[in-house]
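TL;DR need structure tokens for one chain.
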Amino acid sequence: MARTSVEELYGELWADDSAVQAELGRSLDPRETSSLYETFAALDPVAEDFVVDAGCRDARHAIELHRRFGCRVLAIDPIVLHVTRARERVADAGVEDRVEVAQAAVEALPLPDGAADFVWCRDVLNHVDLPNALAECARVLRPGGRMLVYQTFASQTLEPDEARRLYRATAIAAENMRAAYLEETARASGFAIASVDPIDSEWRERMIEDGAWDPSEDLLAVARARRRETELVERFGRKRVEAALGDALWGVYQLLGKLRPTVYVLTRSDA
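>> reply
TL;DR here they are.
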């Protein structure tokens, strides 16, 4: 594209951009975050199925999988705090007979071979030893078992310095942010890729339209942290400040297309 001249910018492009602004103000009917359950529903789970929630955090999704589909769920997480919160939430929901919580890493699942019908893995694989994690997920799935993966990848517009700072702050393995690497590793681990669904910025757009998230709050946090960086680092330490910045930037980067969430359905290829 040729460089825009000052005359074009002020005399034409910005002189009357009402039509463009009207189009930019039109909703694209983005999907809700709950659409991940719809993707899972399309895999036809039944109440007799056994699901592993790999990296469950507070077991919110594990409980919802049981509530929607009747499945028995093993919710695992390596973080002691997450396990404690997950057990409390499961107890509060009164589903302890159908949702079990265990402390374990995705790279070492406490299950025998072929024990699970499904693996649910949301927002986890950025942090793990990917070859070992996917090999373990394939191991515990029965022949024909499937794994639903929600994974965020970096796009070409995420600048190298931005990427390095974000990955250091949020415990991310840089190679895991490439879609090609996940796909290569999945195939090498015994999976076939059944489907790929780019979520891109849809969930974030929907959260804004529904009033569930206000990106201006995160942008303000980033601006304030930038102007008070020395003071905040002295008070709280570099890692805590960088982690807060990474959290604030995550959703903003998704809106800008620097980070691109994607949903995969993987199938054990030896079915």
